[in-house]
Amino acid sequence: MSTQSTHPPKPEAPRLPPGIPSGQRRHTLPASEFRCLTPEDAVSAFEIEREAFISVLGVCPLYLDEIRHFLTLCPELSLGWFEEGCLVAFIIGSLWDKERLMQESLTMHKPGGHIAHLHVLAVHCAFRQQGRGPILLWRYLHHLGSQPAVHRAVLMCEDALVPFYERFGFHAVGPCAITVSSLTFTELHCSLQGHPFLRRNSGC
């Protein structure tokens, strides 16, 4: 599930979220940085996710305790985009060891698995409509591709988002066995072994 825009980035300088002065720590932190998340990032991630999903779906893919759980067990399967030290977009994943997603895959991390389950992609409301979701997903797939134990990425999304993920090499395998409240989803898979998209120059 995600709330990202598919529009190209706008040329103006990015705006930091409310409460973050534009000049804060400017001389000690990079203007833009991608890194794996840590448990200390959990609250910031949840605030972004809650705003993005509750208003649209009424539920969150991950709640705060679950975010902390995954960022403690498998931080290497996450990726955050930071602007001057402030989290503005992120993806959180975990390992799975079955061919298809199941209800328990929502909360479990299988260290011996070879499948990366993407739980959530979310972008801060002040940074949407700038093409950040596609850029972050592209970088995340490359990040997964650098981990030899991870052979495939899988996710579930609403039908309307299937074309977006297909641009990145995902293909629909059918209805997902997971339901959340009354919501149903499509399951998508993307092979990370020798995928031509992962060898393409992003220009980012």
TrEMBL record:
Residues 32-193 form the N-acetyltransferase domain. One of its GO terms (molecular function) is aralkylamine N-acetyltransferase activity. It catalyses: a 2-arylethylamine + acetyl-CoA = an N-acetyl-2-arylethylamine + CoA + H(+). It is found in: Cytoplasm. PROSITE patterns: GNAT (PS51186). Pfam families: Acetyltransf_1. Its EC number is 2.3.1.87. It is an enzyme of class 2 (transferase). InterPro entries: Acyl_CoA_acyltransferase, GNAT_dom, SNAT-like. Pathway: Aromatic compound metabolism; melatonin biosynthesis; melatonin from serotonin: step 1/2. GO terms for biological process: circadian rhythm; melatonin biosynthetic process; response to light stimulus. Residues 1-25 are annotated as: Disordered. GO terms for cellular component: cytoplasm. SUPFAM superfamilies: Acyl-CoA N-acyltransferases (Nat). Keywords: Acyltransferase, Biological rhythms, Cytoplasm, Melatonin biosynthesis, Phosphoprotein, Transferase. Controls the night/day rhythm of melatonin production in the pineal gland. Catalyzes the N-acetylation of serotonin into N-acetylserotonin, the penultimate step in the synthesis of melatonin. Belongs to the acetyltransferase family. AANAT subfamily. This is Serotonin N-acetyltransferase. It comes from Piliocolobus tephrosceles. The lineage of its organism: Eukaryota, Metazoa, Chordata, Craniata, Vertebrata.
